[in-house]
């Protein structure tokens, strides 16, 4: 069988990545999109595109009928589901078979067995695959789990059987904490997955997450392509992945690879899949099966870079019925590859998701560097989907060289208009334990409190003010005899007067910067500081980049403006500063005059852009400190907005409204500021 047309039932960077392989093979590609993704990169990259429905995943990328209708309409013989959405959906795979369309993935049987943690663990144990000691039986009550926990031992881990991505996991250190935690775990599992079945596992000390890539065809051949180290995780979500693992020796690599192949053979697996293992850092020769991901993984590029294989190409060939022409002895791991996930999120605000429009973009290039991305200048990043924007991958002959190359690639990455985690990724790569390969799944959580993010220092503030200063003069005829009155030089008939810029560095803090002279040759004073020499000049051949001299030091920044907000970035660091108008400054001054110094702000602001999904207070209600007023949702994350002070609340929004970052969603009038009611006449 050969495929003439393949539909890609996904979006974002993975859709772009699959389409590129389809184009390389001369196969016609069909993209699908939601209303929110009409102008997305994957849509323009494909040979054809079909609208599925509204922005909500249930109306578009999870709509089985719409996806199948798009395949029929375009003559697609096969559907590649990517990862996420419908990639591990048994009903979708069956629907494809019923419609005579090839599902590029494993059989419905494999999806069924491996799609449930309890079933998969019990199944592979019968094929010699080591599993973590625990209790994995369906239908056990809380009382039965409490009794079984005695044999499992503490500390232990509660996991939802139907879950994925670490959601709903709970660590229990003591027996007396188990009953209450089971109640919470069941509630979360039911809410998230529609199934409250739980399992218990022994908690492995200093665990490392190591997964093995397998390839299998429909003719019985199964091989592995080595392992990936995925221990750098935050809240059970992978952040940085690498291949091979710095922990394993060749003997253990062969053993864990064969265990992965045994798991794949046990279900007659076909295609590309990943078997995940938990390995104790203290005993790296012991490994335990966790689960099998019956799809392509986000981190598959690191395997491709050390093996030289195109996994999507092999998925297509195997789905078309071809025989796997590779033997295990043909697989050789060359060098080292490391991947970092770039997310639309703000690490300084608890990694809350961010939105915006990409105003400026530069993606890294160079020897050994690969970027899988769906970004483009002008692209709107909305709150409907997962916040991952791109993956930056680096290969080098050694691990330390790969780390250094990846760090340089992240430093060269510029995304203005949307806050990303790039600086946070660079901080992780610079950590001594990470560089030494001393990894475990709890490392990030331990290190995070000590990570120091760069704020808007004086050089950044000066650059922003000079940038605004230069834009003030844009469009004026400097050769005009009257130009001296219109250019922002500060010239006066008497003493020169600096131009003042009030720059908001947060929702409630601002810094005044004064500029005297032309942007290219000025004096700048910040706050109460003395004036220093400064200047700004465009960088030749790099649109949107400026060389900024400040007090004898020169740095290069990428800068762009959207309304009152200036976006500035350098070396992976980016910041958003708001140019506050005089009217704003005056209004804020009037509001703050009567506020008691040190008192909590009466304004309740949203720490992230998103959609209001619940309103728990109405205008006029009396609220207490810590009371939930609204709930905002963005990119699969919910955030409760609570009252910081007691008083009478005014709520500005309703369910379904969109909110911007730092938007005031409610205001609380304290007893001191509530007007007295008039006495009746």
Question: How would you describe this structure to a colleague?
Answer:
The chain is α+β, with helices and mostly antiparallel strands and 681 residues long. It has an eight-stranded antiparallel beta sheet. A hairpin with a 5-residue loop joins strand 24 (499-504) and strand 25. The protein starts with a strand and ends in a 12-residue tail after the last strand.
Calculate Rg over CA atoms. 28 Å
Annotation field: number of helices = 18
Q: Indicate the percent of residues in helices.
A: 25-40%
- In whole angstroms, the N-to-C terminal distance is 91 Å
Assembly state of the chains shown: single chain
Label the overall shape.
globular
Give unreliable regions as ranges: 474-485, 677-681
Mean pLDDT comes to 91
Work out the number of β strands.
39
Largest sheet: 8 strands, antiparallel
Structural class computed from helices and strand pairing: alpha+beta
Q: What is the beta-strand fraction? A: 25-35%
Widest sheet, order of strands: 14-13-10-11-12-15-22-20
Structure described in brief:
The protein has 681 residues and is an alpha+beta fold. Helices cover 26% and strands 32% of the residues. It starts with a strand and ends in a 12-residue tail after the last strand.
Strands, helices and their partners?
Blueprint: E1 5-8, H1 12-24, E2 28-34, H2 41-45, E3 48-53, H3 64-74, E4 78-80, H4 90-98, E5 102-103, H5 108-114, H6 117-125, E6 134-135, H7 142-152, E7 156-160, E8 170-172, H8 178-193, E9 198-202, E10 207-216, E11 222-234, E12 237-243, H9 250-265, E13 271-280, E14 283-293, H10 300-307, H11 311-319, E15 336-343, E16 345-346, E17 352-353, E18 356-357, E19 360-362, E20 369-373, E21 380-381, E22 388-396, H12 399-411, E23 414-416, H13 422-430, H14 432-436, H15 443-447, H16 458-472, H17 483-486, E24 499-504, E25 510-518, E26 521-526, E27 532-538, E28 545-550, E29 553-562, E30 565-570, E31 573-580, H18 582-592, E32 603-605, E33 610-615, E34 622-623, E35 628-634, E36 637-642, E37 647-651, E38 658-659, E39 664-669
Parallel strand pairs: 1-2, 1-4, 2-3, 4-5
Antiparallel strand pairs: 6-9, 7-8, 7-9, 10-11, 10-13, 11-12, 12-15, 13-14, 15-22, 16-17, 18-21, 19-23, 20-22, 24-25, 24-31, 25-26, 26-27, 27-28, 28-29, 29-30, 30-31, 32-39, 33-35, 33-38, 34-37, 35-36, 37-39
Helix pairs in contact: 4-5, 12-13
């Amino acid at each position: 069988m050969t495929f003439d047309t393949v539909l890609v039932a996904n979006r974002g960077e993975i859709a772009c990545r699959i389409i590129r392989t389809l184009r390389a093979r001369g196969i016609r590609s069909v993209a699908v999109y939601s209303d929110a993704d009409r102008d997305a990169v994957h849509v323009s990259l494909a040979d054809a595109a079909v609208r599925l429905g509204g922005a909500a995943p249930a109306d578009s990328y999870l709509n089985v009928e719409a996806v199948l209708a798009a395949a029929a309409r375009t003559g697609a013989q096969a559907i590649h589901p990517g990862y996420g959405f419908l990639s591990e959906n048994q009903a979708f795979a069956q629907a494809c078979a019923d419609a005579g369309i090839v599902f590029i993935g494993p059989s419905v049987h494999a999806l069924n067995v491996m799609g449930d943690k309890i079933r998969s663990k019990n199944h592979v144990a019968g094929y010699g695959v080591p599993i973590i000691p625990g209790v994995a039986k369906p239908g056990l009550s809380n009382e039965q789990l409490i009794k079984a926990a005695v044999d499992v031992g503490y500390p232990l881990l509660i996991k939802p059987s139907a879950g994925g991505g670490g959601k709903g996991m709970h660590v229990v250190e003591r027996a007396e904490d188990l009953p209450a935690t089971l109640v919470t775990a069941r509630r979360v599992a039911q809410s998230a997955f529609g199934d409250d079945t739980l399992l218990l596992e022994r908690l492995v000390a200093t665990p490392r997450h190591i997964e093995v890539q397998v390839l299998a065809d429909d003719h019985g051949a199964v091989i592995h392509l080595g392992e990936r180290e995925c221990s750098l995780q935050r809240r059970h979500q992978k952040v940085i992945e690498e291949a091979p693992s710095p922990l394993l020796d060749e003997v253990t690599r062969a053993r864990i690879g064969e265990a992965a192949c045994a798991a794949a053979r046990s279900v007659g697996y076909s295609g590309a899949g990943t078997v995940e293992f938990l390995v104790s850092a203290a005993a790296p020769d012991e490994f335990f099966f966790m689960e099998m991901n019956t799809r392509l993984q986000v981190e598959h590029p690191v395997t491709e870079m050390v093996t030289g294989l195109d996994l999507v190409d092999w998925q297509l060939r195997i789905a078309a019925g071809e025989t796997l022409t590779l033997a295990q002895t043909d697989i050789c791991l060359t060098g080292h590859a490391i991947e970092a996930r770039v997310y639309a999120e703000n690490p300084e605000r608890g990694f809350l998701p961010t939105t915006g429009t990409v105003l400026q973009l530069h993606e890294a290039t160079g020897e050994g560097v690969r970027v899988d991305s769906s970004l483009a200048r002008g692209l709107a990043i909305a709150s409907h989907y997962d916040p991952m924007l791109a993956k930056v991958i680096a290969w080098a002959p050694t691990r330390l060289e790969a780390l250094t190359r990846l760090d340089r690639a992240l430093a060269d990455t510029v995304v203005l208009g949307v806050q990303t985690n790039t600086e946070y990724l660079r901080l992780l790569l610079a950590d001594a334990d990470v560089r030494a390969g001393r990894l475990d799944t709890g490392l990030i959580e331990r290190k995070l409190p000590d990570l120091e993010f760069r704020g808007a220092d004086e050089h950044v503030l000066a650059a922003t003010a000079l940038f605004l200063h230069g834009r003030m003069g844009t469009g004026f005829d400097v050769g005009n005899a009257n130009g001296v009155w219109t250019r922002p030089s500060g010239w006066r008939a008497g003493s020169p007067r600096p131009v003042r810029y009030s720059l908001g560095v947060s929702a409630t803090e601002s810094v005044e910067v004064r500029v005297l002279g032309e942007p290219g040759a000025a004096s700048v004073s910040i706050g109460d500081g003395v004036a220093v020499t400064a200047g700004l000049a465009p960088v030749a051949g790099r649109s949107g980049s400026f060389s900024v001299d400040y007090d004898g030091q020169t740095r290069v920044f990428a800068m762009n403006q959207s309304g009152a907000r200036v976006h500035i970035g350098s070396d992976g660091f980016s910041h958003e500063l708001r140019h506050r108008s005089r009217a704003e400054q005056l209004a804020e001054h009037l509001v703050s005059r009567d506020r008691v110094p040190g008192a909590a702000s009466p304004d309740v602001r949203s720490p992230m852009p998103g959609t209001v999904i619940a309103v728990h207070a109405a205008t006029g209600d009396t609220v207490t400190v810590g009371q939930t007023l609204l709930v905002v949702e963005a990119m699969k994350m919910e955030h409760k907005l609570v009252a910081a002070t007691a008083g009478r609340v005014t709520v500005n929004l309703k369910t379904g409204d969109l909110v911007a970052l730092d938007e005031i969603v409610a205001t609380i009038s304290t007893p001191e500021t509530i007007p007295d009611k008039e006495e009746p006449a």
